[in-house]
Amino acid sequence: MADDVVTTARVAWSAAFDGMPAPPVDAVRPGQDSDFFRAGGTSMLALTVTAQLSDELGEDIPVRLLLQNPSFGAFTAALRAYLDEPAAAEPDLAEPDLAEPAGERVP
Fold first, then answer.
1. Which residues share a beta bridge with 35?
2. Which residues contact 5 (CB under 8 A, 6 or more apart)?
3. pLDDT value, residue 30
4. What pLDDT shows up at residue 97?
5. Please, which residues bridge with residue 36 across strands?
6. pLDDT at 21
7. What is the 3-state secondary structure of the chain?
8. Structural domains present in the chain
9. How far is CA 86 from CA 23, 59, 65, in A?
10. Rounded to whole angstroms, how far apart are CA atoms 32 and 19?
11. First to last CA, the chain
């Protein structure tokens, strides 16, 4: 499955740059160190990549995975970890305890 995830991620990554007149090599054939944003990616293209991955993999892939891991190698590692344990990869968004003071107030 790991190779399938990498291949699927590579296809989605490359497809995001299809409309670009002359996409750089890192956009078309990403290597481990290819950076999504240096290759011309934007946050909107990141949404496109994760939406395509969500469709292909049958899982809701958060765009945060690509935004926080813009190199292809880091992104695919984060994607594998997320697919193995989605709950463990989610950030802790618990409500802060407002009964406790947050710290010293500065006037």
1. 71
2. 57, 76, 79, 80, 83
3. 85
4. 58
5. none
6. 74
7. CHHHHHHHHHHHHHHHCCCCCCCCHHHHCCCCCCECCCCCCCHHHHHHHHHHHHHHHCCCCCCHHHHHCCEHHHHHHHHHHHHHCHHHHCCCCCCCCCCCCCCCCCC
8. 2-17+26-87 (1.10.1200.10)
9. 32, 9, 11
10. 23
11. 56
21-73 pLDDT, tens digit each:
777 776 777 888 889 998 888 999 999 999 999 999 999 999 999 999 999 99
Q: What type of residue sits at position 38?
A: R
Nearest to 89 by CA among 68, 104, 71: 68
Alpha carbons 57 and 35: distance in angstroms, whole number: 22
